[in-house]
Amino acid sequence: MRTDAEIVVIGAGIAGLAAARVLHEAGKEVRVVARELGEASRVPDALLNPVRGKRGTVALEAEEALEALWDFYPRFGPVRRGILRPVPEADRGVWKGKLEGRRIPHQWLDEGLYLENAGWLRTTPLLHRLAEGLDILYAEVERLEYTTIYLRTPERRTLQAGLVVYAGGASGAHLVGLGGRFTPGSVLQTQEHFKQARSYGVYVAGHSLGGSYLPHQYTYTSHQTEPHEIEWLLSEAEKLLGYRPAVGSSWAGVRYRLDSHYLKEIPGGYALTGFGSAAYFYAPLYAHRLLKRIQGKS
Ligand SMILES: Cc1cc2nc3c(=O)[nH]c(=O)nc-3n(C[C@H](O)[C@H](O)[C@H](O)COP(=O)(O)OP(=O)(O)OC[C@H]3O[C@@H](n4cnc5c(N)ncnc54)[C@H](O)[C@@H]3O)c2cc1C
User: Fold this and answer.
1) What's the pLDDT score for residue 3?
2) Which segments constitute the FAD dependent oxidoreductase domain (predicted)?
3) Residue bearing the CA closest to ligand 1, atom 36
4) Residue numbers of the domain that contains 237
5) Are residues 120 and 42 in the same domain?
6) CATH classification of the domain holding 117
7) Ligand 1 touching residue 253 (CB < 6 A)
8) Which residues have C-beta within 8 Å of that of residue 136, sequence separation ≥ 6?
């Protein structure tokens, strides 16, 4: 059968672009089809955080993910090192236990846990750099049947892929029907610039103040920042910083989570999606895993 590309990646967020970049660099013929460059991936500043939440849960495969991300992102733009987690004294023993035996470089300071190999980055310039030189078709996918991709174009064009990689995130999840949870959320844009990322309850990094507050849902609906979210973020920021930072605009998005099964076989190829709040953390590791799967190495 004639194909338009050996591999068609649906989605140009961090999942799709990291995958397309790794496949392209390995000599594969890759075409990306996406409505736009990133969606949830346009969260203004993204933390790369191996120790999650207020319980200090060490992310699965954190060591491998850290190694992969430091090998990958700095080639495409600046990544700021370090995240300070101001863990309360009373909880430090539990956190120390969770970090024991793990290869997560860290120091305990008076202020809390300093994760020296964690970091944060500004997303939009990175997405543009990742997209440079890739074959990207900007179009809406209407449906997917095995390796045939039906586009919502006036001439109802189709694309025939040798193999499909679905990386369409939350808003495209209906195309593959994998279930999962959708969590809306917002990031406030602060006037102050936080060079040192801090995270406990909410996070600050760059000009961003973000966090998780709203409950998850089982279907995707687009999200706009609600006034009570702003109040929650500011009150949590006060606990983190000791004051409420001045804010201007806000950004809203929806996380899509598939409980650790970020790379799945689907009819006609693979789905690489569902990273929740850790998309930038895992995307380079899983892009390489995808390449290995395609090359038949694991
Ligand atoms: C408040 C908040 C804070 C967050 N903070 C962080 C953080 O600190 N660190 C972190 O790593 N992550 C964070 N995230 C999560 C992160 O933003 C997303 O989970 C992640 O970027 C998703 O990447 P993705 O590539 O899977 O999807 P997306 O970025 O959503 O990309 C989806 C792509 O698919 C395309 N697409 C979808 N449907 C179609 C269709 N039908 N036809 C054509 N194209 C389609 C879109 O155009 C887009 O290109 C946060 C999210 C929120 C909401």
Assistant:
1) 87
2) 7-290
3) 168
4) 181-254
5) yes
6) 3.50.50.60
7) yes
8) 12, 31, 32, 33, 34, 37
